[in-house]
Amino acid sequence: MVKLLMLITSLAGGGAERVASELSLHLDPKIQRQIVTLTDKVSYPSNNPPLILNLNFGSPKVLRLLWAFIFGTIKYRRLINDYKPDISMSFLVFDNFINILANVGKKRTKKILQVHVALSMKFQHSILDTIAKRLITILYNRADLNIAVSDGVKQELVQEFNIRPDLVKVIYNPNNIAKIESLAEESVDNEWFNGDTPIIINVGRLTEAKGQWHLIRAFAKVRKSVQCKLVIAGIGDLKPDLDNLVSKLDLDDNVMFLGWVDNPYRYIAKSSLFVSTSLWEALPYSLVEALACGCPIISTDCKYGPREILADGRYGILIPEMDNVLYNASDPLTKEEELLVQKIVELIGNDTLRENYRSLGKIRAKDFDLERSIAKYEKILCECCK
Length: 386
Known about the structure:
CATH topology of the largest domain: Rossmann fold
Radius of gyration: 21 Å
Structural class: alpha/beta
CATH superfamily of the largest domain: Glycogen Phosphorylase B
Helix content: 40-55%
CATH class of the largest domain: Alpha Beta
Low-confidence stretches: none
Number of helices: 15
Largest sheet: 7 strands, parallel
CATH architecture of the largest domain: 3-Layer(aba) Sandwich
Distance between the termini: 11 Å
Strand content: 15-25%
């Protein structure tokens, strides 16, 4: 029997949160596991109700983060003393820091950290980001193992953060492909998805990392060549800016923001193509989900994941990454946005190519299936306790 504690900030949305949920639900019974959350935000299911540390991440941000870090470390160390786990696994940067420090002197407990983001892109703006990057180099090298969600993320850890290569293994995020395929068959009660007009869809948080403003600007020109509509599913801080851009480009009747939806797969499956304009990723769930739904993909070739998932362009179209400048509606399109326009128009107009990507995508999605990922996790967890 292996005793596993899994520490994560919350179980409310996000790729890392979903991985924690899937592991808790699907790991072999011989691995006794318990999720611990820093906050009480829970939306994903788990095998047992999570143990909640009830930390406050409010304002002022810096002081609250420091408070949460200190008391989170203290509370989690007490929990480790009581639970006596064989393995303590954490999922996000803040969680990883707490995991390492709470286990100082705990030689019995193996420390596994997960990396679900391109860290060099996440921490690039402030002095606090510089400090965080230094801490990553120091603390991640003190883990027994770091799990990267893609080969690109592993290379970044080794080359840019000087993490020892032998401390990093790659495991793709678990995706329940059969469940996605089943949910994709559900009907959509929306006239946009029940007509003949091609639908371009994007699914992701409305944040800087996803770069949806580039898609909206490109879409404005696409509509001058072909009749189509744009649907964006997700919530986030950039919603007001994106709304304003849509309005200024006179696209209010042709762009729909779905917000948060419980089943995005039924919308993806009924769309003509999926477009990702992400500026950085790690291993984007949304591309795997689009493959499973049989939706042709156009994606930026950003750090990291799209090129791995689409196998250098075999299973979808890769375009150069965008420049991450928040342009106005009146600014001319960049050369990358112009290329996006060209590829969207070409793919919408080529039924044979879209059908080819649909069939290939469903085959490729199986490579990211939950069973494969869970088996790799079980192997690593058991090996850590030998």
